[in-house]
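How a chain folds remains the central question behind the approach discussed here. The record that follows shows the chain in one-letter code together with its fold in C-alpha cell form:
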Amino acid sequence: MNTMMDARHGPVRGSTRSVGREWRGALWLLRHPGFVLVPALLVAAWSWFGWGVVAATIGGALVDLVVWARLHPASFDRWLAPWLRAWRRRWTTYRGRNWAGVLADCELVRENRRTGEMTVPRVLRVRSATRSIDTLYVRMARGQDLRTWTDRADALAAALFAHRVAITKVRPAVLAVVVEREMPFPNVVPAPEIPSDSRDVDLSALDVGDNEHGGPFRLSVVGKHVLTAGASGAGKGSLIWAPLRAMGPLIRDGEVRVSMIDLKGGAETERGRPLFARYATTMGQAIGLLTEVRDAMKARQELMRTTGIRSLPVDRDTPVELVMIDEMAMLTAYGDRGDVREALRLLAEILTQGRACLISVMGYVQEPSKDVIDVRELFTTRVCLGVTAASHVDMVLGDGARERGALADEIPGDPEHAGIGFVIDSTSRLPVRFRAAYVSDAEIDELVERCHPWARPGDVVDMPLDPFLDDEDGATL
C-alpha cells in the first residue's frame, strides 16, 4: 500500500488523484510525434510553396501509389501494403476506446483501487504481413502475466471477430499477440518447381509450401530429423513429395540418397520407387534397411574419427542419407514385439547419432502418442497437420502449443484443408500455420522422369521397370 510518513501525524496514505490529463497528453505526443510533425510540415509547406503545390504533390503521390498497386501488385503487397495495413489497423482497431473496450470485455484491464483509473495494456507495435494476420506487441498492465492472457485468448479472439489468437512472451512484460482474422489459405499451394541445377538446392531450407505470413514454408533435411503427424487425409503425402521435388537434382546427381520404408504395402510410394536407393514394404525389409543405414553411419563415424573432421561435405562420396518412413506406427508399435524392439533400437541409434554424419530421418504418423512413437522426442523438427484430438497437438509440438494458438485439432478434415498445419517458429516460439504444396500424380511422374539417379539434365529417359536388385531376404537395396 502506498504510504508516506508525516512528522506530526505518522504514516498517511498516498494521494488518490491521478496524473493530470495535460501531462498524459504531452507524454502521448512524445510517443507519437508524427501527430505534431506532419501537420506542422504541411502548414510550413503551404506557407512556403502555396496550397496548389502541396495539393498537387499529395495528389501525385496518391496516384503513384494506385498505379503501383495496379501495375505491379506483387512488389506493392511485399513492400508497402503491410505498412499501410498495419498503420490503418493500429489506429482503427488497436488504439483508443475500441481497444480499451475489447480488453475490458475480456477482463484484461487493471483498475487502480485507490484512483479508480483503468490501466489498459498498451500496443507498442503492429505488424500486418498479410491481410489475414496481425501481430501485436503489447505491454501488459502491472500485475498481469502470460497466463492471464492465454486464459482469455478465446474470448479475445471472439471480441476481435478473429479466427484465432495466439499469445507468447517476447521479453519481460511484453507479449506478442498474433491475431488471425481469417483462414489464410483459400487456395491450394502448387507443387514446388524442380530446380534445374543441384547448385540451386538448399537442403537447409527446402521450399515446400506457404506460411500464414505470406512467406515460404521451409523445411531442413540436413542436420535435422522431421516428424509429421496428421490424421488420415490431412495431407502427409504433400510433405513426402514436395521435399523430394525441391531436392530433385541432388537425388539425380547422387548427393542425396533416399531410403523409403512404406509398411502399407507401398501403396503410397510405389509411384516414386525409381527415386529410392533402398525400398522396404515389409517389417523384415525395414529392419534390413535400417541396419544398412546404421552401418553406413558407423562407417562415417570411423572416417570422421580417423581423419579428424567434425562434419562431412555433401557430395557423391558422402551423400545425405535420407530415411523416409511412411506410417511409422506400423514400424514402432503394431508389428511383432521382437521386430518392433529391434526397429526402435536401430531407429533410436540413427536419430541420436546420425546428425553429424549427414543422416536424416523423416517420419509420418497418424497417432503421435508415446505408446506409438516411443522415439518422438528425438525428432528435432515436428510438424502437426490436422489431428483428431486436442491432446495430439501438445504431443507433437510441445507443452502449451495448443494454448498458444496451434489449433490443429480444429482444422477440417476435408480435401479443401489438406496440407494445412502448424510448426513452432524457432525464434518466437509461436505456432505458425502453413499449407504444404499439393503434388499430383503427374508431378510425381515428372519428378521420377527428371530426377531418378540415372537421369541427366535434358535426357529423355526410358525408365527400367525394376532398376533394383533384391537381396536374399527380399529387401530392396
